[in-house]
TrEMBL record:
Compositional bias ranges of the Low complexity kind: 27-48
Region (Disordered): 27-53
Signal peptide segment: 1-19
PANTHER family xrefs: ARABINOSE-BINDING PROTEIN-RELATED, SUGAR-BINDING LIPOPROTEIN
Protein name: ABC transporter substrate-binding protein
Keywords: Signal
Domain of life: Bacteria
InterPro entries: Bact_solute-bd_prot1, SBP
Any single Pfam family the record assigns to this protein: SBP_bac_1
Amino acid sequence: MRRISTIIACLIVFSLVLAACGGKNNNGNSSPSASSSAPAESNSAATPEPEERDITKVKATISIYYPTPDQVELRAQEDDKIKRYNEVFPNVEIVKSDWQYKPDEIGIKMGANEAPTLFNTYATEGKFLAEKGWAADITDLYNAYEKKDQMNPILQNQFVINGKVYGIARDGYVVATVVNKKMLNDKGVALPPLDWTWDDMYNTAKAAADPKKGVSGIAPMGKGNESGWNWTNFLFEAGGEIQKIEGGKVTAAFNSEAGLKAIEFYSKLKEANAIPQDWALGWGDAVGAFAQGRTAMVIAGPDGPLDQGLNQGGLKPEDIGVYPMPAATAGGKHTGILGGNFLVINPNATKDEQELAFRYATFDYFSDKGLASAEESIKARKAENKFLVPQIIYYYKDDSEYGQKVKAVYDKYDNVYQYDPKVIALLDGKPEAQYNTQDYYGAMTNVVQEVFSKKGVDLKAQLDAAAKIVQEKFYDSIKVE
């Protein structure tokens, strides 16, 4: 799921709570304990009153997640946020880090003490980071946060592990299918119904494809972990699961009858020449192909394809349709992976640095300045004839007072993409697996590549082999408490 952040209120109350918690320590020495022989009056007089702690006066340096160079608008928003944050916390030096979270790099970063104080991650990583000790336990900070009850539980609960909080929700998505309606209309292909099925997707993709011109009907991702991620939506739609947790053990479950149906559907798309001839596409490749008119459909969190199609591909809102993922059969659920973007605090940071990082993460949350910043971004995009494409889910509840304020801002401008309420009503978000999800995605990517590159593949054997690898290499070592 990025564009709207907040200001924390009630700093004085929060500071008093922390001061009270820190009252047992005085300049690093324990406070004197009461002696059974000393008069009560004497002991009371000897104990100094704890000084009120003002976090805005603390001097510290924190490094924060900073958008990559290609995200010009987001960098401008972050620079403005840093400036305003320093007006409240003048003694905090902000170091910008454009490191993008990667599961195979986080251990190295932590070991070398190079991970930012505040870094971005995604929904699959909560349990992994918590168990590795690479995410700070921010339960006390979160519980003291005045706005915690207004946070969107659909997202925030994904980073509550065994009752403790390890991350701060930013935004989220439910995987959908984004359709180039203009391509279909130009070729005379009928638009499928919103309440569509796998058969509808297959027929549309086959009819829209033109292999001789290098145009595919659909571009399922075939490179990187995003390939396994794309396919998992079909596993879920068929009623399957990634893993089972029983008796303290984690067992691979994706090589099921549902998994076989899902991989058979992929094979069917390949045999129909509905996918790209060069199928080894990562997220950026597939979304880029959509924006460039080289594929009629792409599977992703919808904001990415929409943003590129509207702002880089020259498409108009009426040219693009956001569809839920298709149901396996008529009357089935339109299940798509529920994912999200989160901020995590480095456990190696000092308590002051952790608190300041938490306050930075939530600085614009639920604030009028956050709304103003969003509106300025919309205006700036309008001046450049660009659209703002919101995420489907944000850190706040849509029906909250703040959610309604955001909607009112969006409704003022014709360059803010508006999702069809009928589509939103059909979306069925399903969270990703709790354990080793990225490793599972990698294993399934190998299966997808076998299917896309060869004929006559034994699909069940491929699924069984992948499940065996994931089970022996990852799941067997897990003990669930």
